[in-house]
């Protein structure tokens, strides 16, 4: 080839020659990211083409070299140049290579777009977000999106429907299922830390049409959640003052949330950290107070213990069938209350060192939220009888007046604390609304980038903010100004119905994605040792989680069609609980027909296991793992590593 290799035009010709080629394997300091090692190679990054070119300085190298053992490459291309290059690879000093180098294995812009499997477009890894979130930010983001009205308010309705034993049974079983989801998600997110997280995994590893329908349903959940939580905040204010127009409070909360979300991601993370810490401290405080009250240490005295488990009883209903139906209805509520715990993957592209932070944040989030839920709900079952009329006195499903925590404090005869608890509930609601804007905007960016939403929504500004997606989310939040209307409860009931089962669908899709990912790895002869993090529950755990969630869907179908206390089938109740399923099916079929896709699943041969992957120097990674293993000599250290 004639030309000067130190001129940009020269490399443009080189790139054109390989334009349709597969991506080369990344190399760091002479070490292949696979099992093969190539010496004396260096890298030039041409930003105009989003391309990395690998230069071979040695002579008589073959132009193509198979790399069968490498996880994320199908064929390795080498450019044979018999000249002495002055370019040298910089040392990474044992750090995560992503700290100072962009190792996207999808180096050429003409890649197949995830939307329909045929249109060519650059990959989601091209979306550059600021990596300013560490473990505590990821943890509090998930806490902010999960711990809200589901724990503080809606648990009262679950207690009334199933009884205290149903609360504990349902939440424990759902938590075991969720542990498999978190591990599956941790494995995928550590390997593919892209904006939107599982939105991309579902599309790539299962099917573009399936991914489109799941992602759209999940996006609708967060879109509806923002105005719903703002209305809930205005209703909570009525505990102190019901004379001020609700829209005035909505305007105040809306402005505050908009301001925080227009900051850079680090400032947003700090704000969410403060809000989440208030909730965590409140949960710890209520746990201590609940134990004291249950043991008879309150102003009214008298040991309570398991009194309400005997009278009125541990389960609601006189017959086994009624009690089982009540338990099934609580399963649905329990699953919904954990919604948002998957936020650790949504923020993967903005986290520091995803290999370490994402798995740790996911596991710690799970244990923190599960411990909080199970402890609080056990105490609620001891302090509040399921037939307490105040559990049904709320003017809305988000009315703090029906909170079992507030009722428990009132039953204990403690003055002043009910007002404080309502303030905590208000903060929790605002925190969830704040997280909703974050999650929704990131989902919009990933969906826009893979062609499922208008491209304009994928814009990232100089400060790393998804500015257009955030503005679109805030625009939808203006629906919250119907708070002063008498019809607001009815409106939000049906808006929520549009995505009522989205959390369950999302978790099922994550487990399916993990199963398909592992199947493709085995089919393409890829070792699990190439993964930066391996799920502790494995594929068996994903199958278990999928089975439990399928049973929850059946339980939801039954209790929606034949609601508790009803006289036969109820069409309105069914569509309120199950409207999201037919909408999901319509989106799936519509996408299949529009893009004329006959294939049900992405074939294992064609599945892309290399694009957008977090590339690391395997030699450095193995050394880090060896040092970490040496530091875990005690039983406690090993225990904490596995579970935390």
From TrEMBL:
Gene3D superfamilies from the UniProt entry: Amino acid/polyamine transporter I
Keyword Transmembrane on entry: yes
* Coiled-coil region: none
Pfam families referenced in this protein's UniProt entry, alphabetically: AA_permease (PF00324)
| PROSITE patterns per record | AMINO_ACID_PERMEASE_1
**Record keywords: Repressor included?**
no
Transmembrane residue ranges: 138-159, 165-182, 218-237, 249-267, 273-293, 365-386, 423-445, 466-485, 491-512, 533-558, 578-595
Region (Disordered): which ranges? 79-120
Stretches assigned to the Amino acid permease/ SLC12A domain: 137-598
A single MF term (Gene Ontology): amino acid transmembrane transporter activity
Supply the alphabetized keyword list: Amino-acid transport, Membrane, Transmembrane, Transmembrane helix, Transport
- Localization per Swiss-Prot or TrEMBL: Membrane
Q: What protein am I looking at?
A: Amino acid permease/ SLC12A domain-containing protein
GO CC terms: membrane
- State the organism of origin: Arxiozyma heterogenica
What family does the Swiss-Prot or TrEMBL record give for this protein? Answer: Belongs to the amino acid-polyamine-organocation (APC) superfamily. YAT (TC 2.A.3.10) family.
Q: Where is the composition biased (Low complexity)?
A: 82-92
- According to Swiss-Prot or TrEMBL, what is its membrane topology? Multi-pass membrane protein
């Amino acid at each position: 080839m004639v030309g000067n290799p130190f001129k940009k035009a020269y490399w443009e010709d080189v790139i054109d020659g390989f334009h349709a080629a597969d991506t080369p394997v990344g190399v760091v300091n002479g070490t292949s990211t696979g099992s093969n090692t190539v010496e004396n190679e260096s890298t030039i990054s041409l930003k105009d083409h989003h391309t990395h070119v690998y230069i071979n300085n040695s002579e008589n190298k073959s132009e193509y070299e198979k790399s069968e053992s490498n996880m994320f490459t199908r064929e390795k291309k080498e450019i044979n140049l018999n000249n002495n290059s002055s370019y040298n690879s910089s040392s990474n000093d044992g750090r995560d290579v992503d700290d100072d180098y962009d190792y996207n294995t999808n180096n050429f812009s003409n890649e197949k777009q995830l939307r329909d499997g045929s249109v060519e477009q650059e990959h989601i890894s091209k979306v550059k977000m600021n990596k300013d979130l560490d473990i505590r930010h990821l943890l509090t983001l998930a806490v902010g999106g999960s711990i809200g009205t589901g724990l503080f308010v809606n648990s009262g309705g679950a207690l009334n429907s199933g009884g205290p034993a149903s609360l504990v049974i349902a939440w424990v079983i759902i938590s075991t299922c969720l542990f498999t989801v978190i591990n599956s998600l941790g494995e995928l997110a550590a390997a593919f830390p892209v904006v939107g997280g599982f939105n991309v995994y579902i599309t790539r590893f299962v099917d573009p049409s399936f991914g489109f329908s799941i992602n759209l349903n999940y996006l609708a959940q967060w879109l509806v959640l923002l105005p719903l939580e703002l209305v809930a905040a205005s209703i909570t204010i009525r505990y102190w003052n019901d004379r001020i127009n609700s829209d005035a409070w909505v305007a105040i909360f809306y402005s505050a949330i908009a301001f925080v979300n227009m900051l850079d991601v680090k400032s947003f993370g700090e704000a969410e950290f403060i809000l989440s810490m208030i909730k965590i401290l409140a949960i710890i405080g209520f746990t201590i107070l609940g134990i004291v009250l249950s043991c008879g240490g309150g102003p009214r005295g008298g040991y309570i213990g398991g009194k309400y488990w005997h009278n009125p009883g541990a389960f609601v209903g006189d017959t086994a069938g009624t009690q089982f139906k009540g338990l099934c209805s609580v399963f649905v509520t329990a699953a919904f209350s954990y919604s948002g715990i998957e936020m650790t993957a949504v923020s993967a592209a903005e986290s520091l060192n995803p290999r370490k932070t994402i798995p740790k944040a996911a596991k710690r989030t799970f244990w923190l939220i599960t411990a909080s839920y199970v402890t609080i709900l056990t105490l609620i079952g001891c302090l509040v009888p399921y037939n307490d009329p105040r559990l049904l006195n709320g003017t809305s499903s988000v009315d703090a007046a029906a909170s079992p925590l507030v009722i428990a404090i009132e039953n204990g005869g403690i003055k002043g604390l009910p007002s404080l608890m309502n303030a905590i509930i208000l903060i929790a609601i605002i925190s969830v609304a704040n997280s909703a804007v974050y999650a929704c905007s990131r989902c919009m960016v990933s969906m826009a980038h893979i062609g499922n939403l208008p491209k304009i929504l994928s814009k990232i500004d100089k400060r790393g903010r998804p500015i257009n997606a955030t503005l679109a989310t805030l625009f939808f939040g203006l629906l919250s100004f119907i708070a002063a209307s008498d019809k607001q409860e009815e409106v939000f009931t049906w808006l929520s119905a549009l995505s009522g089962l989205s959390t369950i669908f999302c978790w099922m899709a994550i487990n399916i994605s993990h199963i398909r990912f592992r199947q493709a790895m085995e089919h393409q002869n890829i070792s699990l040792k190439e993964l930066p993090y391996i799920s502790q529950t494995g594929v068996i755990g994903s199958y278990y989680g999928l089975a439990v969630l399928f049973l929850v869907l059946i339980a939801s179908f039954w209790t929606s069609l034949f609601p508790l206390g009803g006289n036969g089938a109820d069409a309105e109740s069914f569509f309120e609980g199950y409207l999201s399923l037919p909408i999901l099916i319509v989106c799936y079929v519509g996408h299949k027909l529009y893009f004329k896709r006959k294939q049900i699943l992405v074939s294992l041969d064609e599945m892309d296991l290399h694009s957008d992957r977090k590339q690391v120097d395997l030699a450095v990674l193995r050394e880090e793992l060896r040092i970490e293993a040496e530091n875990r000599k005690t039983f406690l250290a090993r225990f904490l590593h596995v579970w935390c």
